[in-house]
TrEMBL record:
Tetramer of two alpha and two beta chains. Residues 56-378 form the Tryptophan synthase beta chain-like PALP domain. One of its GO terms (molecular function) is tryptophan synthase activity. Belongs to the TrpB family. This is Tryptophan synthase beta chain. It is an enzyme of class 4 (lyase). Keywords: Amino-acid biosynthesis, Aromatic amino acid biosynthesis, Lyase, Pyridoxal phosphate, Tryptophan biosynthesis. The keyword Iron-sulfur does not apply. It catalyses: (1S,2R)-1-C-(indol-3-yl)glycerol 3-phosphate + L-serine = D-glyceraldehyde 3-phosphate + L-tryptophan + H2O. The modification N6-(pyridoxal phosphate)lysine is found at K89. Pathway: Amino-acid biosynthesis; L-tryptophan biosynthesis; L-tryptophan from chorismate: step 5/5. Its cofactor is pyridoxal 5'-phosphate. The beta subunit is responsible for the synthesis of L-tryptophan from indole and L-serine. The lineage of its organism: Bacteria, Pseudomonadati, Bacteroidota, Flavobacteriia, Flavobacteriales. It comes from Lentiprolixibacter aurantiacus.
């Protein structure tokens, strides 16, 4: 049995492509071509060259000595915060823009919530000189002004989604509508391991460079490619999928997924999808999502915008229900304090999303000889105002 995707686009019972018929030609074109395009030597060459020279890969695998001493185990940090644009998201947007070019597309659309994926998409569109339209909820546009300004500087058009709650879900609906109307010239860059097949698998493959590098780097540092645990925060699940990818079917490596419990799992203000979620369909994928008794999607809440998503990718839904992954929910308060601790102990200010992962030490312990690799998914610069307000700095 494998925890990776099967040929029909499923992870166990999760995944698939539950889409309106009018979208079928678009996703079918992708489904038929993505693996062949991605595995072609000229694609791999261009992808690897950009990851190296533009993104700054390989990112370091850093042994965090003071953090290790504090928690009495061996802690390594995979430094995705050092990627160009400050997080792992660009690994995926670089991959998808190269794929879009090979599909003959000359226009890119994307959805964004906090604006991080919008910025990563606008960045690669500028790099390639391709038109870029980013859909963003009106409420998010007001909340995330710096990222809106970044996208504009990078030449993207930011289109407000004005329906519903005017947040991520509504922006996604607008993007899908656009794609249906522009099936021939437009590629839709989804920002996480969510959406209809083949998106979860395609995005996981682009992000899998993370665990590919960890394997090589651990051989150098520890004489083995395998840590005892890999730990990552999960919003939609792309940075986690990248870190887990080459370890999914290796039972020697424990998988730990960290979700946002917001103000507490059962407070009604949470984004702990696995703990609270039921099987349903969101963004064209069958997965676990937070919903009311009659199937309405519940508004999620987390202090970190990147974890504020009511669903989780199908790979993670399967890791949870199969028991292959250990899922831990972390509150805003626990995450903020862990972020401050890592800053003071290691001189690295993590994104608040990432800070959730560092809060697991209050929930479980490790052996002194355990090798525990954390995905440091992003840097905290974007979150400085939230840290300032929270700690009254
Ligand atoms: C977007 C984001 C996340 C959450 O997205 P995933 O797809 O779950 O990885 C986590 N960390 C950072 C820094 C982000 O920008």
């Amino acid at each position: 049995m494998s925890y990776n995707v099967d040929e029909k686009g499923y992870y166990g019972q999760f995944g698939g492509a539950f889409i309106p018929e009018m979208l079928y030609p678009n996703t079918d074109e992708l489904r038929r071509q993505y693996i062949e395009i991605m595995e072609a030597p000229d694609f791999q060459e261009e992808f690897r060259q950009l990851l190296r020279d533009y993104v700054g890969r390989p990112t370091p695998l850093y042994f965090a000595k003071r953090l290790s001493d504090t928690f009495n185990t061996k802690i390594y940090l995979k430094r995705e915060d050092l990627c160009h644009t400050g997080a792992h998201k660009v690994n995926n947007t670089i991959g998808q823009i190269l794929l879009a070019k090979r599909l003959g597309k000359n226009r890119i659309i994307a959805e964004t919530g906090a604006g991080q994926h919008g910025v990563a998409t606008a960045t690669v569109c500028a790099l390639m000189g391709i038109e870029c339209v980013v859909y963003m909820g009106e409420v998010d546009i007001a909340r995330q002004a710096p990222n809106v300004a970044r996208m504009k500087m990078l030449g993207a058009t930011v289109k407000p989604a004005t329906s519903g709650s005017r947040t991520l879900k509504d922006a996604t609906n607008e993007a899908i509508r656009d794609w249906i109307n522009n099936p021939v010239n437009t590629h839709y860059i989804i920002g996480s391991v969510v959406g209809p097949h083949p998106y979860p698998d395609m995005v996981a493959r682009f992000q899998s460079v993370i665990s590919e590098e960890v394997q090589q780097q651990l051989i150098e540092k520890e004489g083995t490619p395998n840590p005892d645990y890999v730990v990552a925060c999960v919003g939609g699940g792309s940075n986690a999928a990248g870190l887990y990818y080459h370890y999914l079917d290796n039972p020697e490596v424990g998988i730990i997924a960290v979700e946002a419990a917001g103000k507490g799992i059962h407070t009604g203000e949470s984004a702990a999808t696995s703990a609270l979620g039921k099987v349903g369909i969101i963004h064209g994928s069958k997965t676990l999502l937070m919903q009311t008794g009659d199937g309405q999607i519940t508004e999620p809440y987390s202090i970190s915008a990147g974890l504020d998503y009511p669903g989780v990718g199908p790979m993670h839904a399967n890791l949870y229900t199969s028991g292959r992954g250990e899922f831990i929910s972390i509150t805003d308060k626990e995450a903020m304090e862990a972020g401050l601790l890592v800053s003071k102990l290691e001189g690295i200010i993590p994104a608040i999303e990432t800070s959730h992962a560092f809060a697991i030490f209050d929930h479980r312990s490790f052996k002194p000889e355990d090798i525990v690799v954390f995905n440091l998914s992003g840097r905290g610069d974007k979150d400085l105002q939230t840290y300032i307000d929270y700690f009254k700095l």
